[in-house]
Sequence to fold (1105 residues):
Amino acid sequence: MQLDSKIPEGNLEDKWRNYQVKSQLINPANKKKLNIIVVGSGLAGAGAASTLAELGYDVQCFCYQDSARRAHSVAAQGGINAAKNYQHDGDSVWRMFYDTLKGGDFRSREANTYRLAELSAPLIDHYVQQGVPFAREYGGVLVNRSFGGVQVQRTFYARGQTGQQLLMAAYSQLYKMIRAKKVKMFPRSEMMDLVVINGKAKGIIVRDLVTGELKRYAADAVVLATGGYSRVFRLSTLAIGCNGSAIWKAHKRGAYFAAPSFTQIHPTALPQSSEAQSKLTLMSESLRNDGRIWVPKQQDDNREANDIPEDERDYYLERRYPSFGNLAPRDIASRAAKERIDAGYGIGRLKNAVYLDFKHAIERFGLETIKDRYGNLFNMYKKITGIDAYTTPMLISPAAHFSMGGLWVDYELMTTIPGLYAIGECNFSDHGANRLGANSLLQASVDGYFILPNTINNYLAGALKEEHPNTNHPEFAKVENEVKQHLDKLLNINGTKTVDHFHRELGKIMWKECAMSRNKIGLEDAVNHIENLKEEFWNQVKITGTGNGFNTELEKAYRLADFIELGVLMCIDALQREESCGAHFREEYQTEDGEAVRVDKEYAYVSAWDYDNGDFKLHKEKLKFENVTPTVRSYK
Amino acid sequence: MRVIFKIWRQESAASKGELRSYEIDGLTEDMSFLEALDHLNEQLVLKGEEVIAYEYDCREGICGQCGVFINGRAHGPHDNMTTCQLHMRSFKDGDTIVVEPWRATSFPIIKDLVVDRSAFDRIIEQGAFISAKTGTAPEANAIPIPKTIADAAMDAAACIGCGACVATCKNSSAALFTAAKINHLNKLPQGKAEQHQRTKEMTWQMNEEGFGSCTFTGACEVECPEGISITNIAEMNARYLKSKVFG
Amino acid sequence: MALNPLLFRKTLVAATGLFLCIFLVVHLSANCILLLPEDIARKLYNSYSFTLRESPLIKVVAYLLYLSIIVHVVYALLVTIRNRKAKPNKYMVNHDNENSSWASKNMGVLGSLILIFIIIHLANFWARIKLGLGEQVNMDIDGYLDVYSVTYALFQNIWFVLFYTLMSIPLAFHLFHGLKSGFKTLGFYHKKGLRILAKVSLIYALIMGVGFGIIPLVVYFK
Fold:
């Protein structure tokens, strides 16, 4: 199959307008005859569901949590970028586009990335209208701060809870449309598989997480907004329930998976403290606005942080990247931390952390200002670690955080299965090989509110002429039966090891071989290890309880079964890309001082994988750079 | 570290529940409370027993999905904290820890420690939004909102919907939850147009759902992970009276 | 839309409660007459109680007072029943003393004690003086009903003294929570104002409790 990205004609600045002018329209009377399924209720899912409903479509929205308000967009702390240039510091759509493209190490499409920057400004207007209490000046205008990889201030924020506040806005709009009877909400409902009829996405099979019942839902189009898959590492900043199953199932039904190995490791999470740990808590990147990162100059230094004099501290980011300093992009900051920790300069009980120090910021701006900016993050730190970070530096460590990779989508956000869309973190579209801070909330929102509602018409105009999908179609029965057999098989293994055991093992392999730095031998080993783990999982896993009811062990098991398969593909993808770019750092491709070596001539493409009965076939979407010239990404 | 968990087990909403004891060893002080329960569940699986059902998602204190009554307090012994932020260092070796689900008529038990909090969603449904369609927004800085008002709205908006206020309230009142949302939106210029309608309909739904009245015991603001002030309820009362007069 | 029982009932309880708080101030001020030397006290007290019985304005206020007590009790009862229904299953372990005051959680119990007190109090005075039940009340030298003597006689009985004095304790607790919470129920939400109100409530409750509690003792030992 030839990948057609459907990039519209015209200059970069005009593409989105040209697209909208030419796209098809559907008469309001017909819209209500069309049914759309949205899986996921985060910023992308809730935004899309409410906007599609406002347009007149009949929408059904599903989430696995007990309420739409829990979707993991809630956890984003720092902020959301927009090219408003309110700070008069030279920002523009073009600069934001360039920052994002460069931040992603030139591995995303120009047109998509430009559209992201272009729609960022109206998105802030939109959220303000919905009642998001963004931070403001005394005079009443909006405030901005900086984020990594950028030299202007374009990040809008609501204390340290920007994601939560945006999600509350999206969730309330969703409930506005539920009240209007235009959206039907299904919480505690997990998509188990996709139903494809005659090559087109026509519905999903859902498991009711309370009763265990499998249910069929048919629709004219299916939108996946199911978030990222970094829980493949087990220890990540993601919610425990976050999973890659929906997109993995879609992948197995024919949707290409793009750049699975592009996963971001966030530099500022709390370090792991024990084997039993279930998650790593993120400390917002915004802290790097005022916090300084350092390690002792001496290896295995066991002194208290405050006992180490200034001249014995190594502010390694400021040393290596003087122009961006502590605000170097995430991939670079994470790798620099890993380099120091691996070289024996790590601190903390497990020697797996670095310091993030606010001493100078407090001296400069005063305690009250720092409290006002980051108070709730400091409180959170205290709750979790029991340590007061106003007086001693925070201990931070890199942690798996975001997946740039996801289902391959074209300019319309449609996957390679007609009628199946992927929006937000679960697609691969705008971030290339590395995502800039505060661009995640942006992409999810823009996809859901602005892009998909404009592009889905093009497909649905055709669907109008077709027969309305029906759950009595034999394909629904067939897929439902496959899901049932899959679950029965899991329940009947009755082995000797817990699901968490296998997840820990998978996490260890992935973290060691497919995280911040990768190499050929390691990746090949990892593939073998995971294949063995898969074998063992399907023979040795033990799940108690039944499939007919609330069973968290079963949920964990079927999600993990998909993670194991996805892990293999991630390693295969990392193997084929023989270059270092963004978050994908191949040890074989680095300069003498440890910087990434990108190979544009051969690898300026998006890898898109086709699932073929357990094998994966690579397709390449060439990236054309007509408006910018990919340069060596330097933050020095 | 070794503790004895006494955990509420209940098969379904209809069945009768009871506290059951589980002795567990091998915990460390660094573990979070939920990780200790995870550990217990793994032991149960290996013994072939059905696991204890409890809820969580983000495990960083923001999603609001976790929430159980621990040793007589919502979210455990500390003030203003979620269950997932509680760590085992708050307990001593050999402690007995009693874990119960949220108890309220409006929060029926689904299984063990899991309750149904959809009543909150239905309160939101009755007006916790600004009726504006996507694509109709004016320029963000067109309406200046003084920092004091934006901050006050943010204080109220911080609610994570965990339900600790209802759980700890002897009357199972949802007043703090409802008030926080009403005040967040009614304070902002964007929310003014629908303020009276919003106040009336959301408080009405709170009544329909079977929650109790607020009698200002103040327990809710102590247990609220976001420390949302009880003055929000007084403010909601004022807004309610105002909506009856002017709305 | 109909009145919201959750908010409306509480509003009535609060409004009537605050009215009763004002009444208590007047009541206690008048009772302070009993602290004066006997000859002055008798004269003043009897003429004051005459005014209370005969002034038409006071009559209106008195009916308002009866109504307030009834509404306060009935609606507080409705609120309590509803609140119990909202939480039928109690926690096996509940350390609610760590998050809320005892008084705030026991307004119903405190209120019931006060209600019992009011009934006995009315039987002691109102029934005799107003309804003329029981032993005949004599006139004093100025021709007023000698209410002072009725009071004096009652507080010669140690059991009544103890009862009246002890009952001022639940009254103080009830008032302490009731006053500040009543204002909040009626929508007073000024943050600094509420901090002041909390202190005012404490002082008010102390004055009422000590005031009402000490008078029977003073009379007894006079």
Remarks:
- The helical segments of chain B are 33-46, 118-125, 147-157, 164-168, 175-187, 195-208, 219-223, 231-246.
